[in-house]
Design goal:
The structure is a homodimer. Chain A is α/β, with parallel strands linked by helices. In chain A, 34% of the residues lie in helices and 17% in strands. A seven-stranded mixed sheet of chain A has the order 2-10-9-8-5-3-4, with helices on both faces. A three-stranded antiparallel sheet of chain A has the order 11-12-14, with helices on one face. The longest helix of chain A is centred in the C-terminal third of the chain and has 22 residues. Chain A is globular, with a radius of gyration of 21 Å. Chain A starts with 9 loop residues before the first strand and ends with a helix.
Amino acid sequence: MSIPITKKKHNFFAGPAILPATVLKQASAAIENFSNMGLSILEISHRSKQFVEVVEEAISLTKELLDLDDNYEVLFLTGGASSQFYMAPMNLLPQDGTVCYINTGTWSDKAIKEAKLFGNVNVLASSKESNYTSIPKDYEVPTDATYIHMTSNNTVFGTQHHSFPETNVPIVCDMSSDIFSRPIDVSKFGLIYCGAQKNMGPAGVTLIIVNKDLLGKSGRPIPTMLDYNTHITKGSMFNTPPTFPIFVSMLTMRWVKENGGVAAMALKNEAKAKLLYDEIDANPMFEGTTHIEDRSLMNVTFKMKNTEKETAFLEACANADCVGLKGHRSVGGFRASIYNAMPIESVQVLVDVMKDFANKNT
Amino acid sequence: MSIPITKKKHNFFAGPAILPATVLKQASAAIENFSNMGLSILEISHRSKQFVEVVEEAISLTKELLDLDDNYEVLFLTGGASSQFYMAPMNLLPQDGTVCYINTGTWSDKAIKEAKLFGNVNVLASSKESNYTSIPKDYEVPTDATYIHMTSNNTVFGTQHHSFPETNVPIVCDMSSDIFSRPIDVSKFGLIYCGAQKNMGPAGVTLIIVNKDLLGKSGRPIPTMLDYNTHITKGSMFNTPPTFPIFVSMLTMRWVKENGGVAAMALKNEAKAKLLYDEIDANPMFEGTTHIEDRSLMNVTFKMKNTEKETAFLEACANADCVGLKGHRSVGGFRASIYNAMPIESVQVLVDVMKDFANKNT
């Protein structure tokens, strides 16, 4: 089958989201013939030498990119971050223990709901009253909490934790939308989890990074598949893993490494975000939707001062091959997701559309 | 990237397993440009019109191929059949209810272990004493059981249920390795589940077919992501689904339909299995490992009368481009998995290798 020729779009989707062009080419090729086996990667045993090497490289790249020490185990599971909302407390929280939450909207809200099945929940701080346009900062973490849960980046509202609390209580963090986008001090974290489909790969695999010291203390029976220890013991191969999503995630991590690692990603991400936020702040037709100090470098949310022009602006974007810019229904306006794989050239195209639109409409 | 030219292998892997060549070509093309969007299928929103159409077609094809009535809901989740070992009793079995199991080895064993967390487990019949070389038939299903659980085809031992018990108790069935391989009377089943990676698609998606009448009766709190009703209400889109595995499964179902549906698959599968079993029975060097009446049409297990020749035979297979034939470690010998997508021509190649090997070695 010949591939239809269509101009490549500038992809601002929030997730599943843009992946590096070279990764897509390698992924497509591996579906026809993987590792010169004469077989597709979709139709080989997960226990074949060639696929075992893929999983091992994915684990090793995760450890290298995030500078993990031997206390941390790396797992590739399924079920998305939404499954970690209950798996984290099921595995970590004793029934009489207390977990603290920082509520930055949507995903935190959902995580809080699930934790209530497993122990005491203390919502330490929330930005709900301001419709989650900021990140709460004024709180103290009780020293007797089992752990504190945070969502590092909120894809819906476009806010991001640019620092994490100073505390000896382990942080459990949903990093679905900013993993591998910047260096982090992993020693603060007891558990990090991420749905892959933003900065890490395609939908269908969930990365778990867990400090082994936190496991085995919940005191409750756990179904085999939901016990982190099951998957640690079997190197994520207790059952058939999502082979292709893991493969593409591994390719994406290789790309991050080849492009300078997470520190280099952070510099590029800062430059892209600055380019776009500067235009939002300078352009007379647009304004940001979040507190400036809490702005996300991954999901840039903005709106028009005159909302009647929104449809016309989205049309102008589409005419310039910029797609995926409609804001989440709970915020409105626009959202430009500019993850690792997004080139600054695409952000420049969007900025040019904004400038041009303002010139023609003011 | 040019795709290296390698001769296509005859793929007898047990799973992840062979997929139709046309499906692989379409899958590969969609990774470069899906639905002429100028985007990869890996990087588009699961809520985009184009992907919603994929899920809707996958659901509709499942209903059409299996002739499901409106009592049944079709879900595409993750976690594999191994996750259904606990999700089925968690959703269906009250704490004081009893579930019956027919133990045909490996997968049944694992399913039994998980159910014990949720209610009373009654193993009605087992072929454990004969190392699972047969399917138990001599049992009665208690009329007060909540449900009875069966594994329709055992990939490891190469046995298959060629009929299901006459009972009014709903059957819950793991059909991971023979879904869409033959017509079934779905009205006997309360729940059918399948990991995709044998007859249905690549690893990373799990098909669930559930009779709605059985839900909401367990009386226990269930985490949101583990409640079948969550996913029924949201059409498998409560959270980001495994988009690419669903897409490839949909393509494979389309292929089944275009090739005559499950009745036509059954005829082809019977012909392939007959060709191979006839050779096993006729060839002086080989013998089958299961009771003849319980032989699987999907996973043909056999061994050599003189086990010292096994390595040489596997080499002869490899020289003829036949791969994936080593038996499971708990059975030994050989296993030829001949799922829907396996052409009879590939089975003939294997049969020819067996004949040739016998000619040269006897």
